[in-house]
Structure formats: structure tokens, C-alpha cells
Amino acid sequence: MDNMKRDLPVAVFDSGLGGISVLRELRALMPEENYLYFGDSANAPYGVRSLDEVRALTVDAISGLYQRGIKAAVIACNTATSAAITTLRERFADIPVIGMEPALKPAVLEHPHECVLVLATALTLREEKFSHLMERYDQWAEVISLPCPELVEFVERGELDSPALDAYLQQRLGPWRERADAAVLGCTHFPFLKNAIRKALNENAVLYDGGAGTARQTRRQLELRDLRREGDDLGSVVIENSLDTPEILGRSCFLLEL
Ligand code: DGL
């Protein structure tokens, strides 16, 4: 394996800014890797689109990144993973393509909980991938699926803390406040709203997200194929967005350093 290949970036893709929560975990775990982040904010939110649309947008975005030279692709979006992971793995079979799913498994197995909320997009929650996850784990706890598409837009606007956000969460999560003792953040935008989500839930409720697990899975895949970058100098991070405005790029850098 030549070092030129190891120096290629790991592509990280999301419908918008949410995947930056995964990029943060990747960078914390593998700071020496080079990263190329692409957010498709011009077409976000994906979670309210049809399966075919999301698959086409995702395949298009990854094709563009692949042609530029990448050594792996992390689909840092639960919605895009549900719609496109099989097609992506067939189409780009010579690189590892790492997907995401709501962290229901650790939420029900690592700590016993009585009632677990899964917050995600409508598409993630209605797709087959999530039904399989439910079949495997809903015997261990009462699992309630709650689509929260508006939360994606709060993050895209950079509104991480506001009375409107609190009111929305109150209305959406309030009915479960007494009952739910855990919540799975099944959309990569949601970890940026952790503080607000915590306020709307019972103070003992535990939050789970899949970012750190995805970073570990990416490291495993790179190691398996002898693709880890050598040396310990810090890698580069390039952030691009289909909505190429100073606001969106500034917001991306802000979220990366948060
Ligand atoms: N961040 C994406 C996810 O993890 C979805 C956001 C969207 O609806 O565009 O599901």
C-alpha cells in the first residue's frame, strides 16, 4: 500500500451541517487523518423527501467526492444511510463506505431503560433498516419513535438555543417527560441540540448518539484495509457545502469547534 493512497482524505457526507457532529468524533479519534466534509444544505432537509430522491442526491454527492480521490466515505447521516447504503457499497466497492443507524442497541443493552425515545427524521423511522433494528431491540424496552424534522432546520439556521426551540421541544417531548428515561439522537443534527433536548426531558434521562461508534467503525475499516495515514502530524480538514455562502461555511467551522 503506498502512502499516497493513505494520504487521501476520508470523505464525510451529510444532507447539511449535522455530519459535523460525526466529523468531530472522527477528528478526536484519528486527528492525523485528512478529511473532506461535504454538506448538501442546498437540498436539506432530506428526511422529508422521498426515498428515491434521497438516494439520488446521496449517490450524486458521493460520486463527485469519489472522482476527486478519497480513501473512504462516511455517510454521516442516518437518513442518507437508510436510503442509499446498499447502492453506495455496490457502486463504490473499492473503498469502505461506512453508514449510520440510530444508537438503539447501546440504549437498550448497555444500560437497562424502561422507555426509550428515538428522535430521528420521518424517513429514517419509516425505512426497513429501522424496522429491523426495532425487531431486534424493542423486546428490551418500550421504544417510542418520534419524528422531529423541524430540529434539522433549527441546526441549519444555527439556532441551537432559543425560546422557539424550547417551545418546540416542550410540545414534542413534554408528553414523555415523566416516562422516558433515555433518548436516542437518531439524526446527526441532533447532538448539537443536546442541551435543549436535555432541558425538555426528565433530568435523569440518558442521551445516546451514534457519532463515536461510527468513528470507531471507520477506524476499524481503515485498519482492515491498511489505509491508516502514517505519522502523527495533524491531518487537514476541508469543509464544503452545496450552499456555498459565507454564513453556512462560517456556521460549519463554528460547529466543528463547538
Ligand atoms: N442529518 C441527517 C440524519 O442523520 C438528516 C437531516 C435531514 O433531514 O436532512 O438523519
Write the SSE topology.
Layout: H1 3-6, E1 10-14, H2 20-29, E2 35-39, H3 51-68, E3 72-75, H4 78-91, E4 97-98, H5 104-109, E5 115-120, H6 122-126, H7 128-137, E6 142-147, H8 149-156, H9 163-173, E7 182-185, H10 194-200, E8 206-209, H11 211-224, E9 237-241, H12 246-257
Parallel strand pairs: 1-2, 1-3, 2-9, 3-4, 5-6, 5-7, 7-8
The structure holds D-glutamic acid (DGL).
The site of D-glutamic acid (DGL) has 17 residues, from helix 4.
Can you characterise this structure?
- The chain has 12 helices and 9 strands.
- With 258 residues, the protein is α/β, with parallel strands linked by helices.
- The protein has 2 domains: 3-99 and 211-256, Rossmann fold, CATH 3.40.50; 104-209, Rossmann fold, CATH 3.40.50.
- The structure holds D-glutamic acid (DGL).
- D-glutamic acid binds next to α4.
Total tally of structural domains: 2
| The CATH architecture of the largest domain | 3-Layer(aba) Sandwich
Count all strands and give the number.
Answer: 9
Please tell me what the overall shape is: globular
- Mean pLDDT, to the nearest integer, reads 95
Query: What is the ordering of alpha helices and beta strands?
Result: HEHEHEHEHEHHEHHEHEHEH
Looking at the structure, the CATH topology of the largest domain is Rossmann fold
Bound molecules: D-glutamic acid
Just give the CATH class of the largest domain. Alpha Beta
Indicate the percent of residues in helices. 40-55%
Described by strand count, sense and barrel closure, the largest sheet is: 5 strands, parallel
Spatial arrangement of strands, main beta sheet: 4-3-1-2-9
Low-confidence stretches: none
Q: What's the tally of helices?
A: 12
**Radius of gyration (Å):** 18 Å
